[in-house]
Amino acid sequence: MRNFWVRRWFRTLPNYWLILTVNFILYQALKLDLFELQDLKGYVFLQNLRHPNILNAFPEGWSLSVEEWFYLTLPVAMYVLSRFKVASKEAFLFKVFTGYLLVFVIIRFINAFNPLNGLDPDEGIRKVVLFRLDAVMYGVLFAYFNYFKPLALEKIKKHLFVLCIIGFNIIFYLSIHLKLIFFIQSDLTIRFIRNAFMYLVIPLFLSLCLPYANSVKTISNKTISKIVQHISKISYSVYLIHLSLIYRPFFKSLKFNSFSSAFMYYVLYWIIIFVLSSLIYKYFEYPVMKLRDRFSTKKAVKTS
Prior knowledge:
Layout (H helix, E strand, L loop, with lengths): L1 H28 L31 H22 L6 H25 L7 H6 L10 H12 L1 H29 L9 H20 L2 H6 L6 H30 L7 H33 L6 H6 L1
Helix pairs in contact: 1-9, 1-10, 2-3, 3-5, 3-7, 5-6, 6-7, 9-10
């Protein structure tokens, strides 16, 4: 547990704390937001545990809260349940993973009868940790099958990928047609089905592409391969800076008189994001990640 948390949190927390602090200072300087004492909850991901309390200086942080609380609670659940009699590692992990997933599916189902946070599905469900902790587990389950049942998964990976494309397009169509995602739904039946099952099927269908994606080991074109690898390295920094640090303070208020000017600013926006993300990765994120080896056991370093 210690090694997992050390290696995971050295990867995510320093970068997040850096950008969150910069955002608070920047928003104060530009008078975009007044810093409040409750904003400090954002440093330990307490802002949206049960209720939607989105930080103005970093609103997208709700998704990182879900991720970090998953990293904390799943290993604890595994540890507690491992105190009981365990038949085999394979059976134990499957029971823990499916049990963990079902707990939060059931919580969402119960909440659908009497929504804790009102009728807004975006603020009241999508952005609340309590209702989304199963979201990462679908990927963990496929990692489980990839470890214990690799041959079986290899045989059906293309079929699962096709199901992913078909299923997600159906979900997308229904979401637009029935206004399932970001709108308050007046139809009680549709609202109940949406609140109870929408955030089960979305990550489930998306995770179906993982076995096929995992089988793509190399890209023949070296230039494209390097670009893909570089983007994968800086992707976390891109996530942290693209909206709150770059777009909202400096681009959101811009007005455009022509397509060409809008396109030029759009290109400039992405250039700034990729350049700044690359610099953050090279001079802060990667050096900090290298420190985690000092706090991990030799075994963990070799196997992670």
